Each structure stands twice: as C-alpha cells, then as structure tokens.
Amino acid sequence: MSRPTYTLAEGQPLSDPSISLTLPTIGGGAHTTLGDTLLLETLAHFNRERIPERVVHAKAAGAWGEFEVTNDVSALTAAKFLNGVGKKTKVLFRLSTTGGEKGSADTVRDVRGFSVKFFTEEGNHDIVGNHIPVFFVRDPVRFPSLNRSHKRHPATNRPDWTMFWDFHTNQPESVHSLLHLFGSRGIPSSIRAVTGFGVHTFKLVAEDGSFRYCKFHFRPVRPITHFSGPEASRLAGANADYHTQDLWDAITRGEYPVWKLCVQVMEPERAERFGRGLFDITKVWSQREFPLLEVGRMTLNQNPENYFAEIEQAAFSPSNMVPGIAMTPDPMLQARMFAYPDAQRYRLGVNYTQLPPNRAICPVYAPYERDGFATTTRNYGGDPNYVRSSLSPGVVKPTAAQVRHHERIPSFVLGQHEIPVDEEDFVQPRDLWNRVFDESERRTWVATVAETLGEIPTPLTEAVVEMFGRVDARLARMLGAKVKDISRL
Q1: The Catalase core domain covers which part of the protein (predicted)?
Q2: Which candidate, 35, 14, 15, places its Cα nearest to that of 23?
Q3: Hey, what domains does the chain have and what are their CATH numbers?
Q4: Is 226 helix (H, G, I), strand (E, B) or coil?
Q5: pLDDT for 386-404, tens place per residue?
Q6: Catalytic residue among 83, 124, 130, 303
Q7: Is 130 one of the annotated active-site residues of the chain?
Q8: Residue range 195-208, pLDDT digits in tens
Q9: pLDDT tens track for 231-260
Q10: Could you give phi then psi for residue 215, rounded to 5 degrees?
C-alpha cells in the first residue's frame, strides 16, 4: 500500500508540513504573511481542537462490540434487535465517572455512567444508565443542583464536603444511593467488572400492542470486584487512567469483556397495585418478586482507532428508542429525554447524528431536519422539507403504529407537587444496610462517610447522622461515634 502524501486540509500537496511557507530566508526576523496557508490553517485549527466537555460524565473509556440474543423474548417485545436467538447487533459502549473533569482520575469514589448504543435495523437504541441501581433524586429540577454539589465550590474551586452534605441532608430521598456510593460498590476495580442499570422503568411492547413494564440490567460475566479506598487513592496518583488502560489492554489481549443483558418484567395489572416505586428511581424492584430474565450477551471486542472521533463524539440519549420499547411517565426519564440530546447539540452541533459514532446503520429519511452547521449528507436534495407533501417520496412504516398502547397507570396531577420523603424512602436502604451489607461492609461504610464529615460545620454533621438514623438507629450510633473518634485525633 502506498504511503499518503502530506497535504493541506483541502488536499493541496505539501513538501514539508513542519516548515512555514513564507518564513523570511534573508536576515532572519519574525515576519510572515497572510499567504502562509499552512501556518494559518495549523494555528486556527489548533485553537479550535477542543470541544466543550460534558458537564457530567466527562471522563470515560469506550469500545465497540456486539450484542447477541440468547433467549427468545418475542412474546414480550416487537424490538427486532432483541428477537431471534443468535441475532447479532453492533454496539458502542462508554463508561464514565460522573463528577470529575476529562483529565480526572478513574479510580475515584463516584457513580459510573454506563451507556450502550445498539445499531439496529430500526434505528439506534440507547440504554443510558449507571453502575448502581438507584439515583439520588426523583425530581428533575434538582438534577443540576445535585451535580453542582458534587463538583467544585464556586469560590474555592475545590470539591467541598460541606456543599455535598448540605445538598443531601435536604434531599434525604438520596440515602439509598448514598449507601451504595459509600459502600464497596463505589469504587469498581475494573470497567470489566461493573454492573450496568437502565435505572428507569421502561415498557416492552409486543406486536399486538400488549405491554409490560421493565427494567434493564447488564451483569458482567466475570466476578464483580472493587478497590478499597487506600488502593483507589494510590492508583489515582500512580495511574489516573487505570480503568481506561485496563479495558484497552484486555481487549488488545483478546480477553473480551462480556455482560449479560437481563430484564425485570412487571405485568400492567401488578403495576396498578405497585405504588410509587413503579417510576421512582430512588427505589429498586425486588429480584425475588421480579427475577432477572436473560435476553442476550454484550461482548466488547474492538478498541477505538481514534478516541476523539469515536468516543468523545459519541452521543447517547434515553430518548433513542426503537419500536417495541417505550417510555413511561417517570419525570426523570422525561427530562433526560430532552436534556441529553440538547447537551449533544451544544457540544457537537445540531447535526451530531451524522457523526460516525452516532450514525444509524439503517436508512435515515428525516427531511424536516436539515441544514445547520456540519451537514455531511446530501441534505435530502430538493425533497420537500414540510409535512404532508404530495410530492414527497417518503412513506410511513405501518409497524410503527402497531406497537402503540395505552398507559394504564393514572396520570400525574400537573402543577408544583413534591413527593414527600416518608418512611417508604427508608425501607430499601434499611434492607441494604441490614440484609445485604455484612458487618465488615458496615464498618467500612461508616469509616468512609465519617472521613468526609471531619471538617464540615457541626450542625451539618449532626444533620447527616440524623438522616442516616432514619435508615437504622445503630447506623447513626456507629457513625456518630466514628466522627467523634476522628475529631479527637
């Protein structure tokens, strides 16, 4: 294969891209001219090489792979990529920390974002969740404030535990997530060993229009392992990209990471009696009552050739759903369905769907979305750009209408309405503390949280202890005693 010739951006050949074209050759000096296209093009592009990083989930690793159906779920959903045992679908995977900037360390205690894009014959389908099964808040207007409280203080420009705990003591529905975050799950040992949860409740819709509510789970085939706090801190200093390197090296060696994709399924009749936990993402569904049903397996088998082009420009959104999978009235899901594509339009431009990592493999015909920066297609030529044109070559797909259905759950009352924090919000965190954590995990959890309380105001420390006391009285006593021990040191 012949070697490529260096050129300018529009193809004009260069004899040497390392030498400005018009530097003076007599007498030295520092003069150049506007005719030095190589120099101006190089400097201008350099000034524009960085795009805005994600406000959250900025630091990430990613890879390509495939999803293979292992179980027949055609009775549950019309989604073609989930039907037909043995069927394979190309996927793009991205896993990130949440709070840190793009250059931050991988091995921090944080919630990981777990995102998978399925390139199906009916368009892209995204599962965009986290590595813990619940979330901190259930009102989407609090989402920006949640993330600000986990980031840098506006004055000191440093992470601030006072700010962190001030937010959470005033949003005590977050205790379930906090138990997960400060437990062993908070610091995974490897991207290859993390769980992935869709978190929200979705609907699986069958060909006949019947539906079931569902939750998506990715379970790693390898054991789920974690780092201790000291181990993670050491690695954060020794190799800030430890998880990123671990994933890359494993794929290079041919040790391909594998996850089982499973669903929990709830019949609509059961949902009518299930209560608030149906759409409340601070809560889980019991796997005893709603066992995991394996659908298929995801295998990551290809590293990106260029990180920026394939991972940094990847755009995920829970609004990307194919026929056979549908949204629910979960207000956090509804808000994310707007916020995620809007973030991508800001970061990548209005035509971000035309970029390689986001481009659908099926034919796309959306002549009402055209023009704008960075249009890379033929822009639909002269086809009508208005609806119900008798001149348009476009046709509708009947199967899209066949999976319509009715929501059986009563709709919410519109208007400002806060779901009060009550005893129900502490039942599942109490079960996690008493039935899932062993005594070693409890003591480690208490020590980890106590370390964050050492320098915050005393009334706020008391509020934190009181909040966790609503989970379990012994938890509060252990935490209060540990804080006193630390303060005496």
Answers
A1: 7-395
A2: 35
A3: 60-354 (2.40.180.10), 426-488 (no CATH)
A4: strand
A5: 888 888 888 877 654 455 5
A6: 130
A7: yes
A8: 999 999 999 999 88
A9: 999 999 999 999 999 999 999 999 999 999
A10: -125, 140
